[in-house]
Design a protein that fits this description.
The protein is mainly α and 196 residues long. The protein has helices at 2-35, 47-96, 99-104, 107-149, 151-158, 161-195.
């Protein structure tokens, strides 16, 4: 579903570009007639061809939406099933733990793992993993499409990749540190709410 959606998304702009080419060719043909001294009431633009191209683009976008919808439904079912099983396993584990475990761990930390961490796993499976798969295929699909249009512009665009990698490698470790601190504080907050 991800591959199908990406293919539709990548092909659509190129098909739409052919409509621009039809308009451009009509304008150029009209300008040639004007320059030749002929009277031109309207430019010879093939509107029937433009309408047929637009219909193809609409169909491509509808198919892309269907592929993405099916992909989202499948990933939602998978993620909910996995998280449901994990919650059952966690409940079984909590009932087997000795009392000394609860004396050594705060209620907020245990509650945070049972609720917030499970929700984060659910979000990762449902959204982040889907975006990762789609982005992977989108990158190579767009790269291929760019190469078919202009290899020089493609190389120029690829020159920005090292800069992007440097920025991500600088900010990613810092965000991980903040995320861990957030999870810790969330556990403390849950413990305070539980006590109250």
């Amino acid at each position: 579903m991800a591959i199908g959606g990406v293919i539709m998304d990548i092909v659509s702009p190129k098909v739409l570009g052919s409509a621009t080419t039809v308009v451009f060719d009509g304008v150029i043909a009209g300008m040639r007639k004007v320059n030749a001294g002929m009277t031109v009431r309207s430019f010879p633009i093939d509107f029937k061809k433009i309408v047929s191209i637009l219909m193809i683009v609409v169909v491509l976008y509808v198919l892309s939406g269907i592929f993405q919808l099916v992909q989202q439904v499948v990933m939602t079912r998978i993620s909910q099933s996995i998280v449901y099983q994990m919650r059952k396993d966690l409940k079984a584990k909590i009932t087997r733990l000795p009392v000394s475990f609860y004396d050594g761990h705060s209620k907020g930390d245990i509650l945070s793992r049972a609720v917030n961490d499970m929700d984060n796993i659910n979000t990762m499976l449902q959204s982040s993993l889907t975006q990762l798969i789609t982005s992977f295929f989108m990158f190579f699909g767009v790269l291929f499409m760019m190469l078919t249009i202009s290899w020089k512009l493609t190389l120029l665009a690829l020159l920005t990749l090292p800069l992007s990698i440097l920025v991500v490698s600088f900010f990613a470790p810092k965000s991980q540190t903040f995320f861990r601190a957030q999870q810790h504080e969330l556990g403390v907050l849950n413990g305070q709410v539980r006590v109250v």
